[in-house]
Amino acid sequence: MPFDNTMGLAALASVIPLIILYLLRPKPLQIKIPSLMFLMRAEQKKKRFASLRRLIRDPIFLAQLLVLILISIAVAGPFYTSEESLSGEHTVFVIDASASMNTDGRFDSATEIAKTYVSKKNSIILAQNIPVTVLEAAGSSATKDALDGLSGKGTVADLSTSITNAMRMLSNEGGRIIVISDFTNWEGEDPVAAKRLAESYGMKVSFVRVGTTTDNVGIIQGWLEAEESGYTYNCVVKNYMETTQNVNIEIDYAGSETNKHLTLDVGPFSTSQFKVENLGAGVTTLRITRDDSLMTDNTAYISIPSNIQNELLLVSDVKNSPAAVSLSLLPNIKATQSNNVPADLSDYKVVVIDTQQRALTTEEIATLDTFINNGGEALFLASSALDPAAANFDLLKILPVKPISTMESNNGETLKVAQETRLTEDVRFEDIAVYTYLNATLRADAVSLVNTDSEIPMLAYWSVGDGTVMYLGLSDELGENSWNNFHNLPEYPVLWAKLIAWLGGAGDISDYNLQTGAISALPNEMDVSTPSGTVTTSRLLYDEVGIYKVAGKDIAVNLYDDMESDTTIDASGVLDRATSQDGSQIVRESTYTAKNYIDIYLIILAMLLVIVEILIIRSRGEL
For labeling, which of 56, 207, 311, 507 is most exposed (least CB within 10 Å)? Predict the structure, then answer.
């Protein structure tokens, strides 16, 4: 019989010999006369074996010994194997939570249909642009409760990746996958291809369609342009009907008690564009006043921050460094450069430390520490001044990484993105060659966004008090001592703009107006007000249309997707392809090797023996 854990057997193997040795232990002889030694020994052996026979026949002793043996074997995890059929007992629901599923109650229909497929063990995956697992391997009652608590979102669904995630859940024992969707639009690969792949591994995949074609008028695009007098919003409305529609738009300006109305005549299956000028600070709302089948795209939100200019301090001992040049060119940023850390940092939101030749003094470190703990944001660039051989220990404690030593690579270290966020978008880190760098390890509570291929953090952050500290492992040094080629790449100013916008600054206007499906890495775990409630997170997925309140900022999130707003799409072609038999061949066996553990039965038997022992002792009058 195989075992999962040999500790119990080892304990049993060590205990039983001790019991035997104890029973057969020699007793010291008091008589030392040689002529009597043999007779005494023989007599003692006879008595010991007689005692052993009596002990072995004692039911209490036998019960205690069996309990010890059974518990030792149970700890070892004994099991036997058997070939079991891949069954449908585990059902994984892939439920489309895209914006189009809000049409005429499609999502509610999907959850009600899912209840009719609930089995003994169930999992639920919400198909958004990033699949979200909301339940795993739960019973029927918990599954139905979870289905009642779900709601539709506002992104485009990646059905293929969701089906792939469901395959991973069922990779050991098999089961079935129920995909419930309107199948009108999706992101990523064709879901039919994912279905056939899952079926080729012996899993049963069913596509269940909800909803019917219907009419719609919606806002499918919007963007802001900066003007001297303020911002101008450009809006595009599309009519998905066969007849011209008279569309009334209500505009609720930020800070104004009166609304403005305008009317558009939009032709069949056509678009109409208009502008809203002189937008002031705050949130402005545009709303199509008519009710239709899909309300998600009837409203557009525009957020304009009240003060978009930020005060930033660059502490550097090098004039006109690449960082200094990039910071000076950033819009809405007032960058001040200093050779040292001033005693008063109250005028700044962000402090960038780029000292290449000298280490910070104890006084400067104390000032920075107070600034960060009180809510300030700091960014440290790697340099020889952060090498443990030169840096102050109190400074190293602030960093989200623990520097070990300065390393060199003749061929150049390559970089990879460890976590996909808006900080890493539009930056080709794989094009950066790193020849000199700080060998460092990530601290326990820190987050790394970019690593080398050898897993050395190159872009990391963590929280210190009420503030945030970020580390960028790409040094700014130039010339023969250059550590990397990053400052020669077009992505260099792009990353700087993203870093400063993310580090507590107001950032660009586009950071306040997002499309659903965007993801933000927050400086630390915080409470975020979403259109449907409050969540606590450090990585925020904007999956609903509306206003998000993040660290005191109003973030406007809109759908802006022509295909997702098209409720006239007939998805019957998808179902026809899904049910055709010209696809997969079974490449997996129809059974799997199951481990059947018997430890629980051994423990129950041991408990019964303990009860028997107690009853015997009580019957003897010893208890």
Answer: 56
**Tens-digit pLDDT profile for residues 123-165:** 999 999 999 999 999 999 999 999 999 999 999 999 999 999 9
Q: Which of 145, 139, 42, 153 is nearest to 95 (CA)?
A: 153
Phi, psi torsion values for 287, nearest 5 degrees: -140, 130
Span 488-543, pLDDT tens digits: 898 898 898 888 878 865 556 888 999 999 988 887 788 999 999 999 998 899 99
The verdict on pTM exceeding 0.70 is no
Is pLDDT above 70 for 394? yes
Quickly list DSSP for 272-334.
EEEEEEEE-SEEEEEEE-S--S--TTSEEEEEE-S---EEEEEEESSTT-HHHHHHHHSTTEE
What spatial distance separates the first Cα and last Cα of the chain, rounded to whole Å?
Answer: 39
Residue type, 586: I
Report helix, strand and coil shares of the chain as percent, to nearest 5: 30, 35, 35
pLDDT at residue 8, as a whole number: 53
Which token pair is 251? 């505009």
Q: Which residues are CB-contacts of 28 (< 8 A; sequence separation ≥ 6)? A: none
| CA–CA gap between residue 96 and residue 99 (Å, rounded) | 9
Task: For residue 555, give the 3-state DSSP assignment.
Answer: strand
Residue at 175: amino acid letter: G
Q: What is the pLDDT of residues 313-339, one digit of tens each?
A: 999 988 888 999 888 887 667 888 999
In whole angstroms, give the CA distance from residue 260 to residue 286.
Answer: 10
Note the helical H segments in 126-190: 140-148, 159-169
Cα 192 to Cα 504: distance, rounded to the nearest angstrom? 44
Q: Which amino acid is at 363?
A: E
Angle between helices 140-148 and 106-115 (to 10 degrees): 170
Please name the helix (run of DSSP H) or strand (run of DSSP E) that holds residue 19, with its range, or none.
helix 7-23
| Spatial distance between the Cα atoms of 329 and 603, rounded to a whole number of angstroms | 72
Integer CA distances (angstroms), 3 to 11, 16, 603, in order: 14, 19, 15
Dist. CA 409–CA 95, nearest whole Å: 48
